[in-house]
Amino acid sequence: MKQLDKGIHAVANIQSQALHAGFKSDAAHNDLALIYFPTGATVSGVFTQNLVKAWPVIHGQASLKHHSNFKAILINSGNANACNGPDGEKTMHQTIQELADLCAIKPSEILMSSTGVIGAPLDFFPFKKALPTLVNSLQSESSQAVSESIMTTDTVAKETAYSLEIDGQTIHIGAMAKGSGMIHPNLGTMLAYIVTDIACDQVTLNQLLKNAVDVSFNSMTVDGDTSTNDTVLLCATGENSIDLTDHNLATIQSLITKVSQDLAQMIARDGEGASKFITITVGGAQSTEDAKAVAKSLATSNLLKAALFGQDPNWGRALSAIGNSGVETLDPWLIDIIFKSDIGSIQPCRNGAYHPFDPQFAQKILTATDIEMIVELNQGTSQSTVWTCDLTHDYIEINADYHT
Amino acid sequence: MKQLDKGIHAVANIQSQALHAGFKSDAAHNDLALIYFPTGATVSGVFTQNLVKAWPVIHGQASLKHHSNFKAILINSGNANACNGPDGEKTMHQTIQELADLCAIKPSEILMSSTGVIGAPLDFFPFKKALPTLVNSLQSESSQAVSESIMTTDTVAKETAYSLEIDGQTIHIGAMAKGSGMIHPNLGTMLAYIVTDIACDQVTLNQLLKNAVDVSFNSMTVDGDTSTNDTVLLCATGENSIDLTDHNLATIQSLITKVSQDLAQMIARDGEGASKFITITVGGAQSTEDAKAVAKSLATSNLLKAALFGQDPNWGRALSAIGNSGVETLDPWLIDIIFKSDIGSIQPCRNGAYHPFDPQFAQKILTATDIEMIVELNQGTSQSTVWTCDLTHDYIEINADYHT
């Protein structure tokens, strides 16, 4: 596997562009992006499970049920097009029609994503004004404009790409994402776009995406909230004619899982106000579901995440969060807990009770930016890994200071 | 109903005392308390549902299964007697035996509670040394020493008491609690003790307590964590001979519910780092369970709680939290949201979408310490109320700064 640096443009025959249409107040920040597949792509999608859904999510779910081939993904930031009544739906349809006309494609070949303020009216006018320029300036050289334009409270753009030889052919995969917890001033969103040049039917793509999402985007939490707009799309252009044997599919699955995990880790690392990136691995569980439930209970504990911000190896809070995981068959008296970083590791808890450790060395270990927490349940052979960040003053600052 | 000011000593024939035994480092803070019923009391209890349980919780649950009449409740603060291995259990039993000998009662007539650091060894010696003085100085005048001694990160002692005339007789109820979220430096706890002079069998007491806890302690959250030590005890001394007719029981139920709600509200108000007390009422639900699920999803949303700290009527985050409540039958397009305080009220959301309001006035409303959030689902007739507090810089400070 070879790492590439062109994001979605690691894959051939994809065009993109971004510009400032006016949804963000600062004209220096682009807020409208287009990803274009001149010869089409088979697309699979997973969307937020929040019952409150933005218009583009409602639209995308319906579109992907009835269609498998798409030519354009239009993404605006600065306005989530959520909770704004029937006018938001109307603007979305007008925009899709306008783009279809400009590109001479069908409206049903277009998917849309939005991220930003929820509940705010979304006008068609800025789209109408910006779309001709956007379409006319499509290019295939750089993904930077697009990956930056979708940022909201993100502090860094998030891209990854690889190529891999299979059966003497080279397949390519490129991806980008945005997300940083829920976003100032209202709601934020996790958006991710993965493109590859394999030729693949939608049913198979759905399975590849679902498997990847389970161990990546669904194994990552910043603040436990699911937004109204979360969307992950996997697009296969079919440039490559590699045979999808079971063996090749397994290889492709690991590649798609790898880019998904790359992006999920970038999002957790860029969590709102985060000072630490925390990898929680729970092993020795009776099932993967149990392991994941325990890992998620740890990853969403404010108490534990505030402790790690304070460089405190607070195994007591960890044990309590494990006890609150809802896994009824756990035996607390078998649990071991280890904290680890580049600096070293300590085991403050063995068999569910205090295990002697050097508090000074523990604090030193936790000064690192990347922390690993290893929980061994000693009750089975299943495991799960979840990524999160610490809970800091800056999280409060970002999420409280609406008026400043 | 008449409000009284003597806490548990509003009820006759109860003795109490507290002193410093050495579990807290500061000798100015008492850390060992005894509540004594010279002629016994019928006791009912509810305990943490955390799978990881402190020794006194494991002991209390077993005791209340086999016994209904108790004479003493011993409470230490500064050490939770949790996750410290078999030695913690041994110390507990030694302590209970020592207290039984000193009082000439049976060990099975004693319940114990602990709150404070978890995972720390707990020695018998400080108990042995302090218990004779504690027993010899029991008094019935003031509950202050006891209600203060059980505090950990609490900033105020929490007591309430009432009397009520029923059928020409006066019944009394007094109560105290501690709790302020999870507590520095490790785990904290919610402890509550309610005493009354009615004569009542344990089965009836269990029902009265369960009903009260459902709409009080189980309707309150500071940070979504359940500790290893949470305990609520309801003790009936039987001094009063009032007939427990259905009608009288209903009256007594409302009294027990009232003191439970008083204490739950005091705990939410004293939440770690809290600057605001927030009452969330969800109405128009298809069932009480649905209403409570929605209210709890709101009350545990970091995003919403950080917004309220920032005086931001962030109905978008509220709507998203409602969508994440797990109530699958919700129609988001029917939901109304109102924010209210002494200063006035605004309705920023109607039918699941933005509803015009004055942002300046909204911010002014949210400068109040007591905030009400009213969510009308418009899909049924059931409702539920939950109390919580905002998420502030001080919460991070309290829970991160272990080493200072």
Automatic annotation (TrEMBL), chains A, B:
It comes from the Bacteria. SUPFAM superfamilies: DmpA/ArgJ-like. The record marks G188, T189 as: Cleavage. The record marks T115, G116 as: Involved in the stabilization of negative charge on the oxyanion by the formation of the oxyanion hole. Pathway: Amino-acid biosynthesis; L-arginine biosynthesis; L-ornithine and N-acetyl-L-glutamate from L-glutamate and N(2)-acetyl-L-ornithine (cyclic): step 1/1; Amino-acid biosynthesis; L-arginine biosynthesis; N(2)-acetyl-L-ornithine from L-glutamate: step 1/4. The keyword Nucleotide-binding does not apply. InterPro entries: Arg_biosynth_ArgJ, ArgJ-like_dom_sf, ArgJ_beta_C. Substrate binds at T152, K178, T189, E272, N399, T404. The active site is at T189. Belongs to the ArgJ family. Catalyzes two activities which are involved in the cyclic version of arginine biosynthesis: the synthesis of N-acetylglutamate from glutamate and acetyl-CoA as the acetyl donor, and of ornithine by transacetylation between N(2)-acetylornithine and glutamate. This is Arginine biosynthesis bifunctional protein ArgJ.
